[in-house]
Amino acid sequence: MDTKEQNNKDNKIVTVLPSILNRDKLEITFDILKILSDGGMPKTRLMMMAIISWNQLKQHLTEMEKLQLLRYSEDPDSKVYMTDKGEAFMEKYNKLMSLFDTRLMQ
What is the pLDDT along the chain (106 residues), one digit of tens a residue? Predict the structure, then answer.
């Protein structure tokens, strides 16, 4: 890879990172649910896909389990799954965000 290609790649990474690093609690919750919408997965993989630390993941999963937005499997692999309540949350979040997007465009 030449220098120009590497610079373009680095610039793309830099532009994505601020939006990921500045997410609030609600956005991280939504991102976790969005990742789980494709099916259950181990916590480590979820942590990597959500781009959060292990401590952040544990904190969010604990709160989300209390709210019944997700559940753990009974098997030894201990995968995390989204619940029906989690799906309903995602739908409402999407509707709310589309409302904000529509109002900002006017």
Answer: 555 554 444 444 444 455 656 788 999 999 999 999 999 999 999 999 999 999 999 999 999 999 999 999 987 778 999 999 999 999 999 998 888 776 656 5
Per the domain annotation, does 31 fall within a domain?
yes
| Assigned domain for 41 exists | yes
**CB crowding 17-54: b at 16 or more within 10 Å, else e:** eeeeeeeeeeebbbbbbebbeeebbebeebbeebebee
Q: Does residue 90 fall inside a structural domain?
A: yes
How far is 92 from 41, CA to CA, in rounded Å?
23
Number of domains in the chain: 1
